[in-house]
């Protein structure tokens, strides 16, 4: 967006004022980009890396540390930005009597940030984060303005908005001048603020001997625009603070918030555009009651998860996704949040950060599934407005489309990684190595931690190639026919069918999961309270009786169709299962490695 109305007609007196007062800038000149009409600083000749471009003495700075007596009553009540606005407005009011007059003359008359949008223009932002950000910022600015509007002979709202916009779009953090400053104070630095922004530009700001020096850390060609780097700012931040956006901005992000509550293990995320519509959605992971356990442990285990998160330094639940970067802390946090009771109990006894890098195949796949849900956020947009409307077109193409792109990229990374985990798990299952249940890194130190980027995209293994699921079960005609005789809707009774299939397949000497069944033959659940154990046993006995699939069926002998087999199968489901999605339907799968 070309945004600021640049007041750059004649800079002769400004340039003279800068030089007369000690600013130095050789081989650097004010100019305007003929293509974009952007005013800025340009090189007069080629400039090698490490060259000092400009130096500006502190006597040219405007900051609240200059002694302005009118500030004292407000020092404890106004924000540093409001205080600096007062200083700028004071100098502006002085007109030619101000030392800073030549500087103030060249400042833009307005900066087209959304703070200046009219009501009908604000409607174009409906449903976006920006709408929320602008409203909040405006509310606090109005409050501050009301506290100071009688100063300097009267400050109008447009005056105040102008001063604030000049500061958000041009000021530097005061900590640059005084590294011990821990406030959010800012300082206006003439000349230094003539540089436009280019992401990732290598440039150094140095404050020495009361002078700001700006040094290029890259070679600059002749007659080229010299850019500053305003920091890693997304298009939303740039539009709100500076009134412009960058095409394909590498610093665009989408914020994800993982919330962890008592009612559901992992509840929701979100932030991109339509935060209101998503903030209360459940992640759908709290389905432990149906026996499948992809991390939805009972509420009793929530404190344990909190404990693990806190000893691993993973309590910050807000994460930023970039198009080329997924924070490892988010993945580590999700690994803990999707732990089954068994995983949790084992990991509770083994403090240490390193194991958050990879817990085990089941856990990793459950974590990726949780992550996929978190990143499956609809970004609002295309609200039916004319795209020709400049503001809407910019919000749509530079903000909403970018967020969609980041989320799509993230989902594609998640698929690649899921695929890689499945491949590794399959090779582990088919390797000659002995499997040690419950197949966690903690008791199987040689388990490989998947590496994000090394999977050839052609080798796509569906999760069904790995897991034991109802689909495998119902593809076995003998088993399916026998089960259909006693269960009307097999997909509604998925866990029961899965239990029966585990018992059935355990007897199969040619089963593809033979190694798994050998490893977990005597698998006993971790200790539970007597009460829970008794209840579980009663339910299993009832199920066992009601199904009556013993010797009379074609699939089990009486020696196999026992309550102990049922208990064993229930334990396997509790410990090794995860929920995955197939054609949009949630399925339970046992991960056999
Ligand atoms: C610190 S000033 C930079 C110098 C300013 N162009 C001038 O002439 O004084 C920041 C303003 O410059 C403009 N700007 C900076 N970088 C830009 C960019 N990459 N694209 C478009 N406008 C930019 C925006 O209007 C922004 O509010």
UniProtKB/TrEMBL annotation:
Where is the sequence biased in composition, kind Low complexity?
Answer: 282-298
Tell me what this protein is called: 5609_t:CDS:1
State the organism's lineage: Eukaryota, Fungi, Fungi incertae sedis, Mucoromycota, Glomeromycotina
CDD domains registered for this protein in UniProt: SET_SpSET10-like
The record's annotation in Gene3D superfamilies points to: set domain protein methyltransferase, domain 1
PANTHER family registered for this protein in UniProt: UNCHARACTERIZED PUTATIVE METHYLTRANSFERASE
- Which GO MF terms are attached to this record? protein-lysine N-methyltransferase activity
Compositional bias of type Polar residues: which residue ranges?
266-277
Q: Which organism is it from?
A: Paraglomus brasilianum
> Where are the residues of the annotated region Disordered?
266-300
Annotated ranges, domain SET: 26-231
């Amino acid at each position: 967006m070309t945004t600021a109305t640049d007041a750059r007609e004649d800079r002769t007196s400004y340039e003279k004022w800068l030089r007369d007062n000690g600013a130095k800038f050789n081989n650097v000149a004010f100019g305007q980009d003929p293509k974009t009409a952007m005013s800025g600083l340009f090189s007069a000749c080629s400039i090698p890396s490490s060259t000092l471009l400009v130096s500006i003495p502190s006597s040219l700075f405007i900051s609240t540390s200059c002694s302005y007596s009118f500030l004292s009553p407000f020092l404890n009540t106004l924000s540093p930005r409001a205080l600096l606005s007062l200083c700028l407005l004071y100098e502006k009011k002085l007109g030619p009597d101000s030392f800073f007059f030549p500087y103030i003359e060249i400042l833009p008359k307005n900066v087209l940030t959304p703070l200046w949008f009219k009501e009908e223009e604000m409607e174009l932002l409906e449903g976006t984060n920006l709408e929320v950000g602008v409203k909040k910022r405006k509310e606090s600015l109005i409050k501050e303005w009301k506290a100071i509007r009688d100063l300097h002979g009267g400050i109008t709202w447009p005056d105040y908005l102008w001063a604030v916009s000049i500061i958000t779009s041009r000021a530097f953090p005061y900590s640059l001048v005084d590294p011990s400053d821990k406030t959010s104070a800012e300082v206006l630095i003439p000349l230094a603020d003539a540089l436009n922004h280019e992401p990732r530009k290598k440039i150094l700001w140095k404050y020495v001997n009361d002078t700001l020096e700006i040094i290029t850390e890259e070679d600059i060609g002749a007659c080229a625009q010299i850019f500053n780097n305003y920091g890693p700012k997304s298009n939303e931040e740039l539009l709100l603070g500076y009134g412009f956006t960058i095409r394909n901005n590498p610093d665009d992000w989408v914020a994800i918030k993982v919330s962890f509550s008592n009612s559901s293990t992992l509840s929701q995320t979100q932030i991109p555009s339509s935060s209101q519509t998503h903030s209360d959605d459940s992640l759908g992971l709290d389905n432990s009651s149906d026996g499948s356990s992809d991390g939805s442990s009972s509420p009793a285990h929530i404190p344990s998860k909190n404990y693990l998160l806190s000893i691993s330094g993973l309590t910050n639940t807000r994460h930023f996704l970039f198009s080329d970067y997924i924070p490892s802390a988010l993945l580590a946090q999700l690994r803990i949040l999707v732990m089954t009771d068994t995983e949790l109990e084992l990991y509770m006894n083994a403090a240490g950060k390193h194991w958050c890098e990879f817990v085990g195949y089941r856990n990793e796949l459950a974590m990726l599934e949780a992550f996929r849900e978190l990143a499956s956020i609809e970004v609002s947009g295309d609200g039916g407005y004319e795209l020709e409307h400049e503001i809407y077109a910019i919000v749509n193409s530079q903000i909403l489309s970018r967020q969609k792109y980041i989320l799509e990229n993230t989902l594609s990374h998640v698929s690649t990684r899921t695929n890689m985990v499945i491949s590794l798990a399959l090779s582990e299952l088919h390797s000659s190595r002995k499997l040690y249940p419950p197949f966690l890194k903690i008791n199987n130190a040689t388990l490989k931690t998947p590496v994000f980027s090394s999977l050839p995209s052609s080798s796509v293994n569906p999760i069904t190639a790995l897991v034991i699921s109802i689909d495998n079960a119902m593809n076995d005609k003998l088993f399916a026919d026998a089960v259909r005789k006693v269960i009307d809707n097999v997909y509604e009774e998925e866990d029961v069918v899965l239990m029966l299939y585990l018992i059935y397949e355990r007897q199969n000497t040619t089963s593809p999961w033979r190694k798994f069944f050998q490893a977990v033959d005597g698998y006993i659940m971790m200790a539970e309270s007597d009460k829970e154990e008794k209840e579980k046993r009663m339910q299993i006995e009832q199920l066992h009786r009601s199904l009556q699939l013993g010797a009379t069926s074609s699939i089990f002998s009486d020696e196999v169709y026992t309550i102990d087999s049922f208990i064993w199968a229930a334990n396997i489901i509790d410990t090794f299962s995860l929920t995955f999605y197939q054609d949009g339907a949630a399925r339970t799968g046992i991960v056999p490695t």
